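Practice problem 4.
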């Protein structure tokens, strides 16, 4: 198991409610020092720290999914994982990371406008890598997460389900009258079977609806999830991500009532629900393990709709992520960097706390 994070080492002056603006680290890794060290080694072409980190993570599927996602994103092109797999061909972790890399490559090829046949070939290689990783460690959800991510590509989604021929038909319909959207539900079911309430699994499903049906479909999915989950946990953040995408579609150019978008009862409802039902239930000693991206989306939504966000900023410590701040900043045509606005907002929130 990973060693516990310090409850205050990653929260310097910020935790005391001061106005400091010097402690800012733009990174989705947050206080996971072991993960940060492994990513730095990967950038230097060394995989052993990542290998040891994943071995220590063990069957903590939620943490394994998160760490493998950030390792793949932080490694760049990912050739270091190919070298690892060539040296340790029977390694389930190396196979999983190679599946991550090839999945990212297939999505990147599609987004860059690469020829459809080449995208299909890249997707096929990624699918093959997922199957290999699945065979080596069938109880791990990551290979299924990758398959669900591949379903965003412009091909029939069932091609990414190795068991689609044995599924109950229709393959893309959920047997729930409250959810009419068609999608790769069997892939999400496989993920949830291994890691119930998988954060990345549900976000990949949201992304599927975003790319296939647009931001309204993604928002409908997110709202359905938080309404149907008895204890949603971090899935309560899904609507905030979906609303960011709706905002980008409606006000990406800054036209219309861009600022008023976040000052609605709907935003306040989902922001306060996420704060009260998810964030407030997590003991402060565990704040270092929360997703920094989730905390940034929550902090932004709370501030934008006029709610108290100081506890969320305290939990974030010095860490920040570009989203959603960068999207909002760009849409409003601001010439200065998003970090300037972030630091101003954070300082104001913590200053209010100090006065209280």
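Answer key:
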């Amino acid at each position: 198991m990973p060693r516990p994070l310090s409850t205050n080492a990653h929260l310097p002056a910020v935790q005391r409610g001061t106005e400091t603006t010097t402690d800012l680290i733009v990174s989705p890794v947050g206080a996971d020092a072991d993960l940060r060290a492994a990513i730095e080694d990967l950038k230097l072409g060394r995989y052993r720290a990542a290998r040891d980190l994943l071995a220590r993570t063990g069957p903590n599927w939620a943490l394994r999914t998160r760490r493998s996602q950030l390792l793949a994103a932080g490694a760049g092109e990912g050739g270091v994982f190919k070298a690892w797999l060539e040296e340790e061909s029977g390694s389930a972790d190396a196979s999983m990371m190679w599946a991550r890399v090839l999945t990212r490559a297939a999505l990147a090829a599609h987004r860059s406008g690469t020829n459809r046949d080449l995208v299909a070939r890249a997707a096929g290689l990624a699918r093959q890598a997922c199957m290999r990783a699945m065979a080596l460690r069938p109880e791990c959800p990551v290979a299924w997460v990758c398959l669900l991510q591949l379903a965003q590509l412009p091909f029939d989604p069932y091609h990414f389900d190795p068991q689609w021929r044995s599924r109950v038909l229709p393959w893309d319909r959920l047997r729930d009258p409250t959810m009419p959207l068609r999608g790769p539900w069997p892939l999400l079911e496989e993920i949830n079977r291994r890691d119930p309430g998988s954060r990345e699994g549900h976000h990949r499903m949201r992304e599927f609806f975003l790319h296939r049906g647009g931001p309204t479909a993604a928002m409908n999915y997110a709202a359905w999830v938080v309404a149907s989950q008895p204890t949603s946990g971090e899935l309560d953040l899904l609507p905030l991500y979906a609303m960011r995408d709706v905002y980008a579609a409606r006000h990406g150019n800054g036209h219309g009532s861009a600022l008023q978008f976040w000052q609605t009862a709907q935003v306040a409802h989902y922001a306060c629900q996420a704060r009260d039902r998810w964030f407030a239930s997590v003991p402060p000693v565990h704040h270092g393990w929360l997703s920094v991206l989730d905390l940034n989306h929550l902090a932004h939504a709370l501030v934008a709709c006029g709610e108290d966000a100081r506890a969320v900023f305290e939990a974030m410590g010095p860490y920040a992520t570009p989203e959603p701040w960068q999207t909002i900043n760009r849409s409003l045509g601001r010439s200065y960097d998003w970090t300037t606005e972030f630091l101003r907002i954070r300082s104001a929130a913590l200053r209010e706390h100090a006065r209280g």
